[in-house]
Amino acid sequence: MNSNFSSHTSHLKIDERNHVEKPLLAQLDELGWDIIDLENKQHPNDSHRQTFTEVVMLPVLHEQLKVINLWLEDDQVEEVVKQLTTSFPGGDLIKNNRHAFTMLLENTSVSENRLTGEKSPTVHFVDFTHQDNNRFIAVCQFKVREMYRHARLSHWKVVFVTDRTQLEQQLSETSQSIGFTVKVADSIKKLKELLRSDSSDLVMAMINWDILWYQVSPDNINQGT
Asked: Model pTM?
């Protein structure tokens, strides 16, 4: 193994938490974002939710809808929230995401503005004119528990392939903290065994880039090693 290989691999060992996550959060904080920096051990209330199955911060959505649309009443806010979070065209994930994205951009409506009597008034999710009416939130480690909650996912075998020990540990701790057991494949043989089984597992495997880089480095290719 030559010095060029050692020099290259030393640059690959980067602490993601301190070199990626924290600098980005600091930059967003300077721009006025609300920062919610969470650890693996967290409660749904830490990110404005009741359970980890929720993917929308419902209290924040309710609050901001009334900030942007001052005339909305509580029952109308609830109606609009349901339009965004539960009224989907079907079971196709891509179509449902497109539906939600389109609604966020093109807005929706309710039957009446009860203050003015206007029929079918537009309800805005985002205020593109007055930016201060919007609330920007960055959450580091926004946990969502979805696997095995639905019958169609209950028999899936999920394999996480990572390239960093730190990320492997983080994913493992996150999965365990919400009730899942992670099986670590510490060798190719072990990985094959886990993949051959019929059980619905969460499997963790890691690519060793040090070895891979050495195998495909120009020096070794030229030398036929």
From this structure: 0.70
Q: Which helix (H) or strand (E) holds 204?
A: strand 202-206
Tokens of 67: 């900030």
Integer angstrom CA distances of residue 207 from 19, 161, 212: 21, 7, 8
What Å distances lie between residue 181 and 160, 175, 184, 214, CA to CA?
Answer: 13, 7, 10, 33
| Three-class secondary structure of residue 185 per DSSP | strand
pLDDT tens digits, 53-90: 899 999 999 999 999 999 999 999 999 999 999 988 88
Residue type, 74: D
Query: For residues 215 and 50, what is the distance between their CA atoms, to the nearest angstrom?
Result: 49
Q: Counting every residue, how long is the chain?
A: 225
Q: Could you tell me the residue ranges of all domains in the chain?
A: 32-140, 146-223
Buried b vs exposed e over 5-43: b needs ≥16 C-beta within 10 Å?
eeeeeeeeeeeeeeeeeeeebeeeeeeeeeebeeebebe
* C-beta separation of 81 from 59 below 8 A: no
CA 87 to chain centre: 22
